[in-house]
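User: Structure with adenine, tokens only please.
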Amino acid sequence: MSSALKIDLITLFPAMVRGFLEESMIGRAWQRGILEIKVHNLRDWAADKHFTTDDRPFGGGAGMVLKPEPLFAAIEELRSPGCSVIFMTPDGEPLNLPLSRDLAADNSHLVIISGHYEGIDQRVRDALVDREVSIGDFVLTNGTLAGAVFIDSVCRHVPGVLGEEKSLTQDSFTGNLLSFPQYTRPAEFRGMSVPEILLTGNHAAIDQWRKERSLEKTRARRPDLLNKKESEK
Ligand code: ADE
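Assistant:
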């Protein structure tokens, strides 16, 4: 059986991400054949006996830059016709729910490059990368974590990965609203009780209550999302 989504991740630290993949829902979907995820060590494509993958930047400056030769060799070996090559970088387009969802819907094969150090040689980006993605306005010491976050956020949109597809429609950011508060048993805990309405079984009223709480939270924390909502009408 061919998987719904194939992912090849290229990194200098494969062990960092293998543990996460094996332990997660993503790992279970992988075992069930819905996803096919391979984690590759960039050093396997290094051309010299020292397995060199980085070098000092031309023009000077701090840090090291990943060399073009191993990255070209890795991407050219792993890519397939129609696949998307994604580079994880803080100067990429911001990752958000619509981007994750669209990438899952539009692709059957992603090749992801997790950078490290001061970045990668620009010629790799110019010649081979289709999309550059940032997971947020901060800089990680290790782009492998960004790759893992990206894989998780995209894969949960692949049909069959989540136990209940309904959970996707309750996500924060769906319809540009943050999520509503959730409660479970017991109804009373240390003097704190669950909002009465959730115990009534009146689903229309519960939906209304949840929508109001979502709006309230979004207004307080992310008014920018509500502005988006207005302009989408
Ligand atoms: N590598 C380091 N920081 C990153 C970020 N914020 N997004 C994607 N890749 C990164």
